[in-house]
Amino acid sequence: MTTRKPVNPDLARLDRVVADARRAREEREQGYRAQALKLYPWICGRCAREFDQGNVQELTVHHKDHNHDYNPPDGSNWELLCVYCHDNEHQRYLEQPGTPTGSADRAPSATHTPFADLAALLKRDD
Ligand SMILES: [Zn+2]
Ligand SMILES: [Zn+2]
Fold it and tell me: 40 CA to middle of ligand 1, Å?
């Protein structure tokens, strides 16, 4: 019997798959960013701050429907925002969870406590 664990080839392959996916996403982001910067004037859509080659890295491409996979070539889902306004935009989005469709009151549920058992288990060691 050996105590040494062999390198898991599946894990190595998974690492490569993840790296490939990340690279593909970065390439795609570069793609739509370049397109958006070509399509629109370099001005923040919220605070109207103007940008040039020197600070254009602070100008971000926002997806109006918050779906980064929806990139119509006419740019209808893009909006150029400075990093500050972009942050704001996403915070506002997060502060409005869901749509008010008249669903039941969402009272904080205290019936499900997934860590209760764990706490009990940990206590046993005392
Ligand atoms: Zn701005
Ligand atoms: Zn955004």
Answer: 15
**What distance in angstroms lies between residue 52's CA and the mean position of ligand 2's atoms?**
20
- DSSP string of the chain? ---SPPP-HHHHHHHHHHHHHHHHHHHHHHHHHHHHHHHS-SB-TTT--B--TTTGGGEEEEETTS-TT---TT-TTEEEEEHHHHHHHHHHHHHS-S----PPP-PPP-S--TTHHHHHHHHTT-
- In this predicted structure, the answer to whether residue 99 has a pLDDT above a threshold of 90 is no
CA of 119 to the centre of ligand 2 (A): 40
Does position 119 have pLDDT exceeding 80, yes or no?
A: no
pLDDT digits (tens, 9 = 90+) for 56-90: 999 999 999 999 999 999 999 999 999 999 999 99
